[in-house]
Amino acid sequence: MLDVVDIGKRSLATYRGVAPDEQLDALFRSAERLRGARCLHLSATPYGGGVSEILRSLVPLYNDLGIVADWKLIHGDDTFFQVTKRIHNGLQGAPGALTESEKAIYLANSQLNARRLIADSEDYDFIFVHDPQPLVLASLSGNRDARWIWRCHIDTSRPNPSFWELLAPYLLDYDAAIFTLQEFIPPALPIEHVRVYAPAIDPLSPKNHPLPQPLARDVLEWIGIRTHRPLVTQVSRFDRWKDPMGVVRAYQRVRPHVPDLQLALVGSLAMDDPEGWDCYEEVRAATAHDSLIHVLTNLVGVGNIEVNALQTYSDVVVQKSLREGFGLVVSEALWKGTPVVGGRVGGIPLQLREDSGGILVDSVEECAEAMLHLLRQPEEARLLGERGREHVRQHFLMPRLLLDHLHLMDTLSSARPLPSRDIVPSPLTAIQGV
């Protein structure tokens, strides 16, 4: 059987006064037509990336609305995840091709996971499959009663044809697909129903909940950050697409102008990303001589609260990605009122509108210039952060993402009606705050 992630309970009532009221009201109206439905989200790992962070907050909210939802994980050994990382990179345009042996590893593990899904004997109405790791399960599970949705979180605008031709036939069994941007929709996508909407952050999660400045200072001092010195931070997986070495080079250009400037490079090492270890070691080796560069991971006790403190207390947050699906850390930083210097790729420009949130850059040199500008102009940086926070409130908080999912589910169930289910008591009072 597939592993079930323990997600606890959440209440949409707690978002009243945080997320826009109109989104919360619309959620209840949409959920009325779906109460009693059963929904599954499938992914590769319970921690270490944006997908897991989204699902940990999103899935409990389905249940609060009366939609029975689970989050389950596929299984795989290190070899399988090495292959899926190559597929991930190939879908983002990296060169190369899978060997016949690697294709066999991917398909054999997918067959095992399909059998585990069948053994679960759960009668789901909707199955959301996140990214390429579990993609093949729609074809192999034999469950055609469910409405299958592929949620692609990465930039597949120019996929390597070798990888795309391998996976595209397995998408024929999907009822719908979701992408973050219109331009991410790959050529000749064999799915008729396509939605485009962005991911979102949870403003009430430990990573994003308001953190008092004194507590933030204490947390940072505890992990070695000196709070009397200026600080620039990048939070992301140790992944070459996130260009951590480019951030280091930009920092080194700024450092002569701000001699006591600190840089924090912070990331999780996840079980479905074996390349992350190589990137981490490369960054460690390149920065070992500089005591003001802090390379921090979940392996040394840096988790949600520490990241919250870093994003809250930093003078500037950087997300200098070379390819990016969305970049949740941009919205996370903006939610705390911290300005962002971001790469002009993927979903980052969605979050950094003109004169709002921060500065978009295209090179190491531009990144350094933008960092130095914001460090030297703290009032402008503060205003950018404030405007960015409101932009995130309107567009990139968890209730809006849940609402988009419910609209899609409602459309799919209208085309193919759901079977009758036991009705869960309505959460009307909780949502409307009466």
Automatic annotation (TrEMBL):
State if Chaperone is listed as a keyword. no
Q: Which Pfam families match?
A: Glycos_transf_1, TreT_GT1
The Glycosyl transferase family domain sits at 224-390
InterPro entries, alphabetized: Glyco_trans_1, Trehalose_Metab_GTase, TreT_GT1
Q: Which domain of life is it from?
A: Bacteria
The Trehalose synthase N-terminal domain extends over 41-185
Q: Name one GO biological process term.
A: glucose metabolic process
* Molecular function terms, GO-annotated: glycosyltransferase activity
Q: What does the UniProt keyword field contain?
A: Carbohydrate metabolism, Glucose metabolism, Glycosyltransferase, Transferase
Listed under subunit, the entry gives: Homodimer.
- Annotated family: Belongs to the glycosyltransferase group 1 family. Glycosyltransferase 4 subfamily.
Q: What is this protein called?
A: Group 1 glycosyl transferase
State the species of origin.
Myxococcus stipitatus (strain DSM 14675 / JCM 12634 / Mx s8)
Upper taxonomic lineage: Bacteria, Pseudomonadati, Myxococcota, Myxococcia, Myxococcales
